[in-house]
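Morning, I've got a small favour to ask if you have a moment. I'm working through a protein record and want to make sense of it properly. The fold is given in discrete form, as structure tokens running alongside the sequence. Can you walk me through what the tokens say about the fold? Thanks so much in advance, here it is:
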Amino acid sequence: MADDDHAYVVRRCGERLGDRIRAVRVAQDISQAELGRAIGAHTSTVSSWERGASISVPWLVAIAHALRVQPNWLFAQGDL
């Protein structure tokens, strides 16, 4: 699968993905600024991802690592 295909998959799941990122970040008492610093992204970028903007696979992996969750968990269809 090409990088563009991965971006499409992440964009297609944007709302659920952003909700999951926000939920685990808040549960761990991590601010958007702290998450951004941990992965090298601006706070505004983290905010836009949480609101549903597309996320490339490398960023998704970095977020999952920083939040100590599996990247696949962020895509799960079940309960948070």
